[in-house]
Write a structure and sequence with these properties.
This protein folds into two domains: 8-142 and 249-313, no CATH class; 149-246. Helix content is 57%, strand content 5%. It has helices at 13-20, 27-44, 54-67, 78-86, 93-107, 125-135, 149-160, 168-172, 179-192, 205-224, 232-246, 250-263, 274-282, 284-287, 303-313; strands spanning 8-11, 49-52, 110-111, 268-270, 299-301. A five-stranded parallel β-sheet has the order 3-2-1-4-5.
């Protein structure tokens, strides 16, 4: 949508989720939500190009939903996967409706290079340069919960007892996500650890995160170990793989968004991560020295800053 002469802004899921209210709204987030709505109006009026990366956006959504306990097994069936979670009695249907709205907004965006793109590996030169020299630093992991040994041990203990919960026929079913059963497995382990097994609301936030990881542990285990019980070594292998992929490492996916912007000559990347905005923009001159970034236009902005710029242009 829009003329090629328009300014171009790039969005990931966490910016889109402001439009649907799928994020916790404090005073600052409410202000940014209004700004994002104004940006969307500019987009609908052809005053702005809004673009994204299909693969990186989908990974954003997979991790965001996983943090809430919902397992997306196939991004081509994302609404069906949301529906399967929604059918579970503990699911927050007001939140899943907002996810559906975010998926609908995603479908209205211009997607950059879907047929050719692939997620940059962590060994990619530019990826490593941005992560190591510009952004992450000592505390650069923006995961909702930093992966720790306590979480890994909780998942490990659950996996050690899968044979007490799963029969052979159920274990061979690779398609169905058994939310109720997985919650019972996790609930049992939480009680054993004297942890309150609440699922709903703020008090249940970490337990929803653990359930999301447990869903992945079960799925990976079913595919890689057709018969229970699993060996301790195989359990450790599965836990490590799941924590690395689904532990909510948002900052590294933000780097992938940034690289898509650089490769496609984008003007702005919209993000609600104020620390990321500061880190990138303060070190932008250094990044321009990199051979792949010497003609880069990119600035990182919060929705409120971009909305102000667009208002000034179109007064």
């Amino acid at each position: 949508m829009g003329s090629q002469s328009c300014l171009t802004a790039y969005v990931g899921y966490h910016a889109l989720s402001l439009l649907t209210g799928a994020v916790e709204l404090n005073d600052e987030a409410g202000f940014e939500q209004e700004a994002m709505q104004a940006i969307w109006e500019h987009y609908k009026k052809d005053r702005l190009r809004l673009v994204t990366s299909g693969e990186a956006m989908e990974l954003d959504m997979v991790i965001a939903f996983n943090v809430e306990g919902c397992c997306i097994t196939d991004t081509y069936m994302i609404t069906e996967n949301i529906g399967a979670f929604e059918a579970w009695q503990r699911a927050d249907r007001s939140l899943t409706e907002k996810w559906r709205q975010a998926v609908d907004l995603f479908d209205q965006l211009e997607v950059l290079g879907r047929e050719h793109e692939g997620l940059q590996s962590e060994e990619d030169t530019l990826f490593a340069y941005i992560r190591g020299n510009l952004l992450c630093g000592e505390n650069g992991n923006a995961a909702p919960f930093h992966g720790n040994e306590s979480d890994a041990q909780t998942l490990r203990s659950c996996a050690q007892h899968f044979q007490d919960w799963y029969g052979e026929d159920r274990w061979r079913d690779l398609r169905r996500i058994e939310y109720d059963l997985h919650w019972k497995i996790l609930e049992s382990e939480l009680r054993r650890r004297s942890t309150n097994p609440v699922f709903e609301g703020k008090d249940g936030k970490r337990n929803r995160y653990l359930l999301g990881l447990l869903n992945r542990v079960v799925g990976f285990s079913k595919k890689s170990c057709p018969r229970l019980p699993m060996s301790p070594g195989h359990i450790d292998f599965v836990i490590q793989a799941v924590m690395k992929k689904y532990g909510g490492h948002r900052r590294e996916n933000e780097i992938r968004h940034i690289i898509h912007c650089i490769e496609n000559d984008i003007d702005f990347l919209i993000t609600i991560d104020g620390d990321l905005v500061t880190r990138f923009n303060n070190r932008r001159e250094e990044l321009l020295k990199h051979p792949e970034c010497c003609s880069m236009k990119l600035l990182l902005v919060k929705p409120s800053e971009l909305a102000s710029r667009l208002t000034a242009i179109h007064l």
